[in-house]
Design a protein that fits this description.
The protein has 102 residues and is an all-alpha fold. The chain is 50% helix and 0% strand.
């Protein structure tokens, strides 16, 4: 037997012994504990809000920009309506009643 065959035989014997002891230890491992259930980030109960006795006129959230422009004045409203005319198709006189009274 030459040196390479002896080295190979010893290495195979060592790996066989180590391998069987590793696998024998795996049988004693306890099953994994159950994971906690996943929590979904959705509000199931209504959130507390600051409700005032005076209720404002309900409007779509899409109109918040044009209503803010109307609150600032007629020139700002006209510019906003002109700038966003191809997006929202707003008309100046539809929101002119929201202008501050002078």
């Amino acid at each position: 037997m030459n040196c390479h065959n002896a080295t190979f035989a010893v290495a195979a014997l060592v790996f066989a012994c180590v391998g069987t002891s590793c696998y024998a230890g795996d049988a004693e491992v306890a099953p994994p504990a159950r994971e906690a259930p996943a929590v979904v980030a959705q509000a199931s109960a209504p959130l507390a809000s600051n409700t005032s006795p005076v209720q404002r006129e309900a409007f779509p959230p899409l109109q918040s920009g044009v209503r803010q422009a109307a609150a600032e004045g007629p020139t700002i409203l006209r510019r906003y309506v002109n700038r966003t005319r191809m997006i929202y198709n707003y008309y100046y006189y539809d929101f002119a009643r929201l202008l501050p009274q002078e």
